[in-house]
Amino acid sequence: MLEGIKVLSFTHFLQGPAAVQMLADVGADVIKIEPPGGAFERSWTGADAFVEGVSVFFLLGNRNQRSLSLNLREAAARELVWKLIREADVLVENYRPGVLDRMGFGWEAVHEANPRLVYCSCTGYGSSGPYLERPGQDLLLQAMSGMTMLSGEADSPPTPFGSAIVDQHAAVLAAFGVVAALQARERTGMGTRVESNLLNAALDLQIEPFTYYMNKGPLWKRTDPPTGSRFHPAPYGVYRTLDGWIAISLTPTNKLAAALDCLALDEFRHPKDDVMRRDEINRLVYDALKTRTTEAWMHVFAEHDIWFAPVNDYEQVEADPQVAHNQMIMQFQHDEAGPVRVLAHPVRYNGAAPPLRRHPPRQGQHTREVLAELGLSPEQIDDLIDRGVALTSRRSA
Predict the structure, then answer these.
(1) How many other β-carbons are positioned within 10 Å of the β-carbon of residue 324?
(2) Band of residue 395 on the pLDDT scale cut at 50, 70, 90
(3) Reduced to 3 states, what is the DSSP secondary structure of residue 33?
(4) Does the pLDDT at position 396 exceed 50?
């Protein structure tokens, strides 16, 4: 769908690479411009997950892209970037605000050189404001945005989510903004400056509870035993069973009373009881569920049309039949790491996911290829590589 759209990627970590991977998956020609040492995510990975020395953190966010490695301290390398900018459709960057400006590739300079180019900046807090110099990182934004105060028991410490949800949501918002700007360019002929930041993404993830707070006042307090949110009526959350856990959501109290065979629950008949007496209801549900196994409750709840779900660990998620049906796990043979599994593109187009066209590239794997497309001769490319202006992998394309 984005075939013919050329994207220059000055990205590292997760927010920027995940955004351009979204664009690459649906056909954009993404050229990842890497410094001599390579992008950060090549040398770091969570869970110490290196496969044959290759970072899984890199592999999960850089498919369907080409790598052009340049030493941007060299004037000749910067001139090559300008050649790319003049023919590109999109530039995506997630350096701290001002870094690309100091390198000469800020919005104003780029827009003057190519007015049609869409320029997307992914930052922690935005391109201006009092937090301009603060580090932007997923956990830090979860904390400052109020997200870590939404879940847990009454007296438990603030609880972060166990995944970089803010980074990924900001990446999706950036990709959405780029596509919207490309559509606008079809009408106006002009590029747009798109900005996505982690703070706005963290707040957008909390659109429901934060909006309740702004219009009604403080949310309900966290409870003991805990409920799954600070704004849903009871029962709502993850509850302990005889041998594990089960999640229950938005179930009328009378239906739950029948399923749990709990006469005390049947006494809550007022329409507002699940709100005004949520702690009492939550405690009764909590106590009742501890009497049977998770499997037993799943059968009971299915019979009584209760909204429930098992609480899976990753081993169970991996084996889940719906996950398999949705084909969300993609496997490919990487030329260095060997067999690798990653998550597939999440959106389906006419019933199918975008194909894997390119494996996550070696640093500089496509340096010769991209420079040749700019019109440079093999001799000129060899000269740039010999002078350290451009870099290439040992087995470059």
Answers:
(1) 11
(2) low
(3) strand
(4) no
Query: pLDDT tens digit string along 275-293?
Result: 999 999 999 999 999 999 9
- C-alpha to C-alpha distance for 324 and 347, rounded to whole angstroms: 15
SS3 of residue 129 by DSSP:
coil
What element of type H or E holds 55?
strand 54-55
What secondary structure letter does DSSP report for 332? Answer: E
Residues 24/36, Cβ–Cβ less than 8 Å: no
Q: In sequence order, what are the residues at sequence separation of 6 or more whose Cβ sits closer than 8 angstroms to the Cβ of residue 228?
A: 151, 236, 237, 238, 247, 249
Q: Which of 59, 25, 19 is nearest to 39 (CA)?
A: 59
- Which percentage of the chain shows pLDDT scores above 70? 99
Query: Which amino acid, 303?
Result: E
Q: Is the pLDDT of residue 368 over 60?
A: yes
Q: Amino acid identity of 197?
A: N
**Looking at the chain, how many residues does it have?**
397
190, two tokens: 């002009």
- Name, in order, each residue with C-beta under 8 angstroms of 40's C-beta and a sequence gap of 6 or more: 12, 13
9-13, 28-32, 149-153: segment of lowest average pLDDT: 149-153
> Strands 65-70 and 245-248: what pairing?
unpaired
Exposed e or buried b for every residue in 327-366, given b needs 16+ CB within 10 A? ebeeeeebeebeebebebbeeeeeeebbebebbbbbbbbb
Contact between residue 196 and residue 179 where contact means Cβ atoms under 8 Å apart = no
Helix, strand or coil, per DSSP, at residue 275: helix
User: Residues 202, 203, 205, CA angle at the centre, nearest 5°?
Assistant: 70
Say if CB 390 and CB 91 are below 8 A apart.
Answer: no
- In order of start, what are the domains of the chain with their CATH numbers? 6-205+334-391 (3.40.50.10540), 222-311 (3.30.1540.10)
Amino acid making up residue 107: W
Global model pTM greater than 0.85: yes
Three-state DSSP state, 239: strand
Helix (H) or strand (E) holding 42: none
**CA distances, 84 to each of 2, 334, 393 (Å):** 18, 28, 20
Q: At what angle do helices 253-260 and 278-289 cross, to 10 degrees?
A: 20
CA angle 267, 269, 274 (to 5 degrees): 100
Tens of pLDDT along 121-162? Answer: 999 999 999 999 999 999 999 999 999 999 999 999 999 999
